[in-house]
Specification:
seven-stranded parallel beta sheet; 18 helices; homodimer; alpha/beta
Chain lengths: 352, 352
């Protein structure tokens, strides 16, 4: 079994595996070339050949321990009828954001998997081309995070629309979250059937809530998904990772949600996160800005600090740690520094 | 002594005092009127009569337990030579941001208090007009937060410039932070001499750091300031409040920094924050979005939850809590809802 999957299952490993959120992306010149050829971000996402090519690009350059499918969490709202497009320098936009509670009833959930068929085709292509033993991670946005985008109509500063709904009409908010949850369960199980080796749930915006609201409007839906996922496929165990950005204060709650691993942003000391539960696998947590603007000495220092901190908290054992950033690779990142980080993490953890 | 000061000193109180970050501001039509008359935000800040008037406006409308001086944390970089101005819809900008490490040597620190004399004049005016028994809170930005603005040249998404400096040239970063710290100490002690009854340090951006970097680049400077503040003035004790937004994971460290109170954003459960230290006064922590978009029932529910949560964690005693938002009042907030929140907090806590 691969080092990544072994680590996610808390089995013995000889080095700490590493992959990076947004490892396929704009910091790579070969990505920008394909992206320009595709015309728009969405035509890249929906083209299984190009999505496969872009997924594999970072694996050709770096000794990464996993591939992650190139896609976007917003393909789900798009398939539910909201019409996703990307505005240059403004990020994602929907042609039909949810504007009234009646729009929630009109969300399309029929034939959702056939609308997302391009994702499963891309998975098949990647699995066919990926080196044997390199696992492929599939993913979805969390229901709360997807609902944020669907209600705000794109990125948001204060999340006024979703918070207004959850405060003043919690029933309608739960109805929306339940609809999304049902779709995410179908979507992730179809990804597993198409061949992904692990799944990750990105709760990018859960951290903007109060603890109370997080426990009512985000975590239960993550838990429902995790309880409904295929845990085995083709005689392999499919581990899961949950990442709530800004959720460091709530890890003890998230740890009870039937996940194999907790994704950490960079604000929590990884040793403190390990105190939550000795058995919980941790993924993280280098500040992506350190990789983007730090020199090699600074990158090595911080990677060493994180690896050592985990080791000390885990009785001198590297198992149960997956190295990653605390958020996605920034577009200004120097690819040489990514190569340096990957090799440094392998080297140091192997010596440990 | 006033209820606010008693609560900040952890003495018995008959109701939980409440004031709101940015209680003087754009959500009030009478503020917008004066702001338009002044022409620019800076001409409002630097005019002691208008700054006084704007400070007092919310006290005329609401039964608030304190006034906070109307000013901006960026008056310090302005006085150090950076040239502050505000661009409509873009926020603060500096004419001369720090662009090289040599600019750090050239920061002006001479005659700093005379350059900021308009602030102390405004304090005198407010103290002369404020109802006897209503305390006035003075404030400053934290050295790290001010350094963020001075290096980024305004607001920032990823804090690339300051993080680059602290990673690759920590000595220069410490030099800058020391310079700012010396000025903040002079500034806050002059505010105390001018008559403020409590002081607050706003570390608005400390939460973007790793714990490690926070402990090296933000907290020690907060501590140095707190250790250098006049604790007594005209036979009154002057309590302090420290607020690191996004610092909920680091409260146990902040609690050791010689402050009377910890400001909390809305992401931490106030009962959990009380676990850090039974003697520590807590200020917070209603999500400002709840005040902005919640209906009255939602506002009451959330205020009750916070008050009850604190009460339970403090052995059934309301003392040592100052009610506030977890961040500033949003401009879209309905003033009637502010009045409702203030009265609700008084009523409920008085019954407790």
């Amino acid at each position: 079994m691969s080092t990544l999957i072994n680590s996610l299952l808390n089995k013995p490993i000889t080095h700490t595996p590493i992959w990076l959120m947004r490892q396929a992306g704009r910091y790579l010149p070969e990505y920008r070339q394909i992206r320009n050829k595709a015309g728009s971000f969405m035509s890249l996402c929906t083209n299984p050949e190009l999505a496969c090519e872009v997924t594999l690009q970072p694996l050709r350059r770096f000794n990464l321990d996993a591939a992650i499918l190139f896609s976007d969490i917003l393909v789900i709202p798009d398939a539910m009828g909201l019409g996703l497009h990307f505005v240059e320098n403004e990020g994602p936009k929907f042609t039909n954001p949810i504007q009234t509670v009646y729009d929630i009833d009109n969300l399309q959930t029929a034939d959702i998997l056939s609308k997302l068929d391009y994702v499963f085709k891309a998975i098949h292509n990647v699995k066919a081309e990926l080196k044997v033993g390199t696992p492929l991670i599939g993913f979805s946005g969390s229901p709360f995070t997807l609902a944020c985008y669907m209600l705000e109509g794109g990125s948001s500063k204060n999340y006024l629309t979703i918070k207004k709904l959850l405060l003043n009409n919690p029933e309608a908010c739960h109805k929306l979250l339940n609809k999304i949850t049902d779709v995410v369960i179908l979507y992730l199980n179809a990804q597993i059937e198409a061949g992904v080796d692990a799944v990750m749930l990105f709760d990018s915006w859960g951290g903007v809530l109060t603890e109370n609201a997080y426990l009512e409007f985000s975590l239960p839906y993550l838990q429902k998904i995790l309880n409904s996922l295929k845990k085995e496929h083709q005689n392999k165990t499919i581990p899961s990772i949950v990442f709530t950005k800004g959720g460091g204060l709530w890890l003890e709650h998230i740890a009870k949600a039937n996940t194999n691993a907790l994704g950490l942003d960079w604000t929590i000391d990884i040793a403190k996160a390990k105190l939550v539960s000795k058995d919980m696998v941790l993924q993280g947590n280098l500040d992506p800005v350190i990789l983007a603007v730090g020199d090699k000495a600074a990158i090595k220092k911080e990677a060493t600090r994180i690896l050592t901190s985990y080791l000390d908290a885990n009785d001198g054992n590297i198992s149960g740690h997956v190295f990653n950033l605390g958020h996605g690779v920034l577009p200004i990142t120097n690819p040489d520094h990514v190569a340096y980080l990957v090799d440094t993490v392998h080297e140091i953890s192997n010596r440990m």
